[in-house]
Amino acid sequence: MSGGAAGAAWPDSPGKLTATAKLAGLGASVTITVAATADPTSTHACRNNGGDSPADPKTTQTVTTVTASGQFTSGKNGRLSATLTGAPPAATVACPPGQRAVMVSVTYTGVTVSAGPSVTTSVAGTFSRTFFTI
After folding, report:
1. Which of 35, 11, 21 is nearest to 87 (CA)?
2. How far is residue 83's CA from residue 71's CA, in Å, rounded to a whole number?
3. pLDDT tens, residue by residue, 29-38
4. Domain contains 96
5. Is pLDDT above 50 for 2?
């Protein structure tokens, strides 16, 4: 990012990705839109109410694009810090009675952070979390 930096943090326990941006040289009290985009792949499976996976669990994998954005205003020193959170795709697996869909894992790729109309930065890396094995 021009006059700043962008980053991302590993998915938290519900599988959300946090993207950050820091900008400098904006001037005092300048408001801009900061947006983050990522391509999450999530795997969901059925588990019984006791927390166990059946011998042949039903699973689905969902790939989509998520975007989060917000308006942020620089301080007196012309600097701005922004934090945005993107959620993984919802479960699409159909579980039988007595079972519920849970997230097995999530991986985010293609993370980008943009500030204003002309500054976009790709965040290097793949951000993954596995919650349990099936």
Report:
1. 11
2. 11
3. 999 999 999 9
4. no
5. no
The tokens describing 20, both together, are 């950050």
Domain, as residue range, for 75: 4-41+62-87+106-127
94 domain-assigned: no
* CATH code, 117: 2.60.40
58-116 pLDDT per residue, tens: 888 999 999 999 999 999 999 999 999 998 988 889 998 989 999 999 999 999 999 88
132 lies in some domain: no
Of 126, 8, 113, 117, the closest CA to residue 68 belongs to 113
Domain count, the chain: 1
Distance, CA of 107 to CA of 38 (rounded, Å): 10
Q: What does DSSP say about strands 31-48 and 59-63: parallel, antiparallel, or unpaired?
A: antiparallel
Give the model's pLDDT for residue 105.
Answer: 94
pTM of the entire structure? Answer: 0.86
Q: Position of tokens 């993107």?
A: 86
- The encoded tokens of residue 19 equal 């993207």
Q: 26 lies in a domain?
A: yes
Q: What pLDDT score does 130 carry?
A: 94
